[in-house]
Amino acid sequence: MKKLVFTKGGFHIDNRGTINFNNNFDATAIKRMYLISNSVHLEYRRWQGHKIESRWFSNVIGEVEIQVIHIDDWNQPDKNLPVKSFKLKGNGLDILYVPNGYVTSIKCNEALSKVLVMSDHALDEVDDEYKFPTDYFFNAN
User: Fold this and answer.
1) Residues facing residue 58 across a β-bridge
2) pTM for this one?
3) Which CATH number does 5-131 carry?
4) Contact at 8 Å (CB) between 33 and 43?
5) How far is C-alpha 117 from the chain's CA centre?
6) How many other C-beta atoms can be found within 10 angstroms of the C-beta atom of residue 108?
7) What are the sequence ranges of the domains in the chain?
8) What CA–CA distance (Å, rounded) separates 73 from 61?
């Protein structure tokens, strides 16, 4: 199983403003990116994942919680799989790498939060989108 990787970013403030950065992130594999903002904060977008694609998540405004589950069987996953949870804040450009084989849930903890999602595959390059009902997994809060 490939591992989740959290890459800590940082920020610098001076009289000109703020710079958010992540100097340890290697973006070589990125082929596309997009922004997600939930229409209602505190609402979950869940469960969507990929057998082939890998994703990177970085919150750019506000705070989001990303829950992650490694899938054991894509046709009928165990409903009791363990859930890992990460909070990403919009200051510091932290990046969460979610390799292929996982599903994710995104919740905006603050109004107007935005999360940047990056993928290692172009749109429609592979048929690799899996969705499960919001209440499918028992261990998710």
Assistant:
1) 116
2) 0.92
3) 2.60.120.10
4) no
5) 6
6) 25
7) 5-131
8) 34
Collect all residues with Cβ–Cβ distance below 8 Å to 89 and sequence separation of at least 6.
Answer: 59, 62, 63
Distances in whole angstroms, Cα of residue 45 to Cα of each of 41, 65, 77, 108, 133: 10, 11, 18, 9, 10
pLDDT at 5: 95
One-letter amino acid at 107 equals: K
CB proximity list for 137: less than 8 A, separation 6 or greater: 47, 69, 77, 79, 80, 81, 83
Q: Look up residue 94 and give its DSSP letter.
A: -
Bridge partner residues of 68 (DSSP): 84, 104
Q: Which pLDDT tens digits describe the chain residue by residue (141 residues)?
A: 789 999 999 999 999 999 999 999 999 999 999 999 888 777 889 999 999 999 999 999 999 999 999 999 999 999 999 999 999 998 889 999 999 999 999 999 998 899 999 999 999 999 999 999 999 998 877
Say which residues have a Cβ less than 8 Å from residue 22's Cβ, sequence separation at least 6. 7, 8, 9, 10, 58, 92, 93, 94, 95
DSSP state of 28: T
Cα–Cα distance measured from residue 136 to residue 78, given in angstroms and rounded to the nearest whole number: 9
